[in-house]
Fold this sequence. Notes:
The protein is α+β, with helices and mostly antiparallel strands. It contains 7 helices and 4 strands. A hairpin with a 5-residue loop joins strand 3 and strand 4 (129-133). Helix 1 (3-21) crosses helix 4 (50-60). The chain is elongated and about 60 Å long.
Amino acid sequence: MTREIFAQEMNQQLKLVRTEYGFTQEAMARILGLSKKTLVEIEKGRSSLGWMGAAAFASIFSGSQVLAGVWGGEASDMIQALAFQEPPRFRKTMGGKVWWRTVEERGGFCIQQNILSQHYRALDGSNGRVCSSFDLEQVRAHIDALREEVASCRSTGEKP
C-alpha cells in the first residue's frame, strides 16, 4: 500500500460516505475544507483528495461503516503506518477480535495482519499497539529491536 493508492481508494469512497452520513455536496465540501466544485470533481474521478485530504477524510469519518468495510476497522493505524518511517507509540487495542488474524507470536509480542487492508501490527502482552506497517519484516525488526533494548536495560539496571 502506498499513500497514492490510499488516496485513490478514499476518493472512490467519498460519495458513499457522504451518502451514509446524509450530507449534501455543499455540507461535505465545507466539512472537508473544499469547494463544492472540487468535491464534485473528486466524486466524478477527475480530481483527488491527495494524501493529506484522504488522511483527513478518513480521520474525520473514522466511525463510517463504509470505511470500516474497506479497511477492516478504523483506518487510523494504517494512516500512521503510511505516515511514519519509525512507528509512534500507539494506544491500547481490543486485541484484534474482529478484523485481525494472528500471524505469529514473537517473544511476548503478537503480530497480526488486517484481513482486509493486509497491513500488519504488533501488540504487546497487554494488547498495546507497538508498531504498524505494510512490511512484515519491518514489524519483526521493530519487535526484535524492542526486545534487545529491554534485554540491554535489564543487564545495566536502566529502565527501558
